[in-house]
Amino acid sequence: MSTSDETSERPAHFTVIDGGFQPTPFAQSHWGEDHLNGPALVGLAASCLERRYGAPEFHPSRLTVDLFRAARGVPTTVRTRLVRDGHRVRSAECDILQEGRTVARASLLQYRRSAAPPGELWCPPREFEFPPQAEQVRAQIGSEAAGWHPTPGEHQNTSRKQYISRPIEVIAGQRNSGFVRAAMAAEATSFVTNLGSRGVGYINGDLTVGLARLPVGETIGVQADSHVAQDGVAVGTAALFDSAGLFGSGLTTAVSNPAAQIEFSGPGLADVR
Fold it and tell me: Hey, is 43 helix, strand or coil?
């Protein structure tokens, strides 16, 4: 286990400041100068909700984050509230605020852990083959047409996309939990479903993560399941994998954003995230 000094030296999206959090350069997005990326905001919401309302007897089953305003590299605060605290269901919400305005809102649904009911259920066949040395890389993207590469520019095609991720810490000095790692990795649902032959032209306005269990280990695979688009609105779903197999899913809705189309084959856009 890492010491607190080792943890504080790991890269992170935010540092703790008086009354809130300060975004670091790791939180920057490709969508625009001084814009924060989705994993940073999703991770911050997941971390704050879990630390405030998580409990060993409850499983974080569904996290939904609405990303309805561009977040920037300014001091950020999080306001949480408990909506319902029942015997089997616990629900909580949080707002992420910058300069007095809400930039994102999240809700967390938790179920009390219990024994499974009797009987067997249908489930689809699921396979995910992690690339070699997956545990040694921070992120990597693959497609059926091009295999695995560290750069998205190799995958501007129309084939099915995959992504592996070992998310950096959300908050400096605080190790990510399995729930937070899953939420951050699942934000790549928009990436693997909206990356096409001309890069990414849809920007997601939300993320919903469903988890049957927490992930094993730090490396998580995200595999595109479906993509439907009409009139500038897209819906994408993806399956989440770890070394033990399928453990959850992600869903995003997105809106056409051609004015800020991200062409990963262009200069300065070699990294995956």
Answer: helix
